[in-house]
Amino acid sequence: MFDELTARFEDAVKGFRGENKISEDNVGDALAQVRRALLEADVSLSVVKDFVEDVRVNALGVEVVRGVKPGQKFIEVVHQQLVEIMGGANSPLANEKDKTTVILMAGLQGAGKTTATAKLALHLKEQGRKTLMVAADIYRPAAIEQLTTLGGQIGVDVFNLGKNLNPEEIAIKGLQKANEEDFDTLLVDTAGRLQIDDQMMDEMVRIRQSVEPDEVLLVVDSMIGQEAADLTKAFHEKVGITGAILTKLDGDSRGGAALSIRKISGQPIKFIGTGEKVEALEPFHPERMASRILGMGDVLTLVEKAQKQVELADAEEMQRKFQEATFDFSDFVKQMRLIKRMGSLGGLMKMIPGMNKIDDGMIKNGEAQLKRIEAMIGSMTEDERNKPELLSSQPSRRRRIAEGSGYKTVDVDKVLADFQKMRGFMKQMASGAGMPGMPGMPGMPGMPGMPGNPMAGKRGKSSNPGVKRQRPAKKKKGFGDL
Fold first, then answer.
1. What is the pLDDT of residue 65?
2. DSSP state, 94?
3. Residue 435 burial (CB < 10 Å; 0-12/13-18/19+)?
4. From the CA atom positions of the chain, what is the Rg in Å?
5. Helix (H, G, I), strand (E, B) or coil at 96
């Protein structure tokens, strides 16, 4: 999402190399790069002007202490200003205690409003809130059917009266049902249009007046760039919104919408859509997004994703297996499926500090290797998956697995060798022995099949004769190295 913007910011910091302080001269060159980066990311011009000036003033006003490089201090200032223009802190969703919380969903057609409604319903369900969705889009073909289908998939009730009543009446009756049946939250999916028009706005105002919502969330397609900020402002002036949901941030958007909406419209981004899956909705945290933009990763969001998928008892059991080096192929498959539920491999990798340099080609190669490994594990018997040592002692088993999965015996040998190294590495880490040299495998710390690790350790002989050793990926410098 922000790869180009991140690269541009890195170029800006390079100008501070060899400098011992931030001055008018060197900060001017860096700010020119920042300005160009933001404009290319489709950030609103007025936002760019204010941002660059704020960074200039704050950067010149800071004292660079001993041990901190000017480039590092500059990035700290940029990070602070990015957080500021995106809202400063997370803006929580309304949660009324004494009545049903009513949330009105608005947006143009094609922004993903109905899908965003279902994603938000699932998010609220995971928080323990009893939610009812109301199908009030009576104009778009199949809109009601789409919401009903999504509701069935996520286990959330949908209130549907068809297309014979007007949207205000449907919303009112939906609220009555929510009050009668003690629903915590009501989500009203309204109709979108291809463009803003008076008829659309008037209808939204009538619906708002009829149910008096606690939140009016505008669903905005991030692909439209800085127009997203102008759209949010127009809706707020005519309807009165309380926040936005920015969708399709996993696509080719350049990030301008995320950086412009709060500054232009005055309304916060409350959630972001990060994928097509119904689980792909995250609360928007400006400080975390700023870290992503600057290539610093986003460990907190990664941990939250993992916590949603991992039970405490499972985590403790896996830790025990790491410590005892009894982690087996069944466990490996379980972990890979866990990662898939959390999101795309590339998206997760870039949340890890220092891993933003992994390019898409390496990610795709890693995903392809993981599929190969899963195919090989699928050709193993239950005993072989649970006792990998059987494969080490019996070549005939490895040949059978190779034939069953469509690969060569040498491929199975390599996966087994990598897996054994991984178990040894995990045992050392779990026992607190420190970071050993990374095994010579195509991946992260001992993980077969993962993208090349820029922190690979000492060179050594391959554990599998006849297989050419891959050169470790050349580590590019990140902000911490400048």
1. 61
2. P
3. exposed
4. 26
5. coil
Angle between helical axes of 167-180 and 198-211 (0-180°, round to 10): 20
Q: Are 211 and 252 in contact (CB under 8 A)?
A: no
Distance CA 221, CA 155 (A): 26
C-alpha 24: how far from its chain's center? 37
pLDDT of residue 63: 67
Q: Which helix (H) or strand (E) segment is 450 a member of? A: none
Cα 108 from Cα 248, distance rounded (Å): 14
Rounded to the nearest 5 percent, the helix, strand and coil shares of the chain are 55, 10, 40
Taking 50 as the pLDDT cut, the residues of the chain under it are: 433-482
**Residue (of 405, 403, 399) closest to 377 by Cα position:** 405
Q: What local confidence, expressed as pLDDT, does residue 397 receive?
A: 94
Burial class from Cβ neighbours inside 10 Å (0-12, 13-18, 19+) for residue 276 reads exposed
CB atoms within 10 A of CB 130: 15
Maximal CA-CA distance, the chain: 76
pLDDT at 360: 64
| pLDDT confidence of residue 18 | 62
The pLDDT, as a whole number, for residue 323 is 67
Average pLDDT across the chain, whole number: 79
Give me the pLDDT at residue 362, please: 73
Tokens read off for 66 = 């001993």
Q: Is the CB of residue 417 less than 8 Å from the CB of residue 463?
A: yes
| Cα-to-chain-centroid distance, residue 306 | 12
Question: Cα separations (Å) of 59 from 12, 23, 74, 286, 378?
Answer: 13, 9, 6, 20, 56
**Spatial contact of 5 and 254, defined as CB atoms under 8 Å apart:** yes
The amino acid sitting at 308 is: K
Chain Cα centroid distance, residue 93: 19
Neighbouring CB atoms inside 10 A of 383's CB total 9
